[in-house]
Amino acid sequence: MYISVGQDRIKKFGLDSAINNLPYDRHYEELAVQRFSSLIKPSVDQFISNPITKHLPAWSRVISIEPSLQDQLSEAGTIC
Predict the structure, then answer these.
(1) Which one of 2, 4, 66, 73 has the minimum C-beta count within 10 Å?
(2) Is residue 32 within 8 Å of 13, Cβ to Cβ?
(3) How far apart are the C-alpha atoms of 71 and 15, rounded to whole Å?
(4) What is the reported pLDDT for 12?
(5) What is the mean pLDDT of each run of 10 residues along the chain (80 residues)?
(6) Domain boundaries, the chain
(7) Contact by Cβ (8 Å): 62, 69
């Protein structure tokens, strides 16, 4: 679901950029969505298969369990 929402946003931002004559690197954005999705997918799959609550945990809880995730997400935004 994240990827399809990301692709919709990429299309919208691309059109907005074109109308306003602003530069937009669609390929970079697509790579960022794919990279971010690959980072969060294992956690989402694990949560769905064994939920401890009906709500997703707060980011602070996620980071406390997987401290390197914040750095990985930050890196994902700059690698693409």
Answers:
(1) 4
(2) no
(3) 31
(4) 95
(5) 89 95 94 88 81 72 82 74
(6) 2-79
(7) yes
Count of residues for the chain?
80
- Amino acid 54: pLDDT: 66
* AA identity, residue 29: E
Phi, then psi, of 71 in degrees rounded to 5: -65, -40
CA dist 70 and 50 (Å) reads 23
- The CA distance from 54 to 48, in Å, is 10
The three-state DSSP-derived secondary structure of the chain is CHHHHHHHHHHHHHHHHHHCCCCCCHHHHHHHHHHHHHHHHHHHHHHHHCCCCCCCCCHHHHHHHCCCHHHHHHHHHHHC
pLDDT given at position 7:
93
What is the identity of the amino acid at 14?
Answer: G
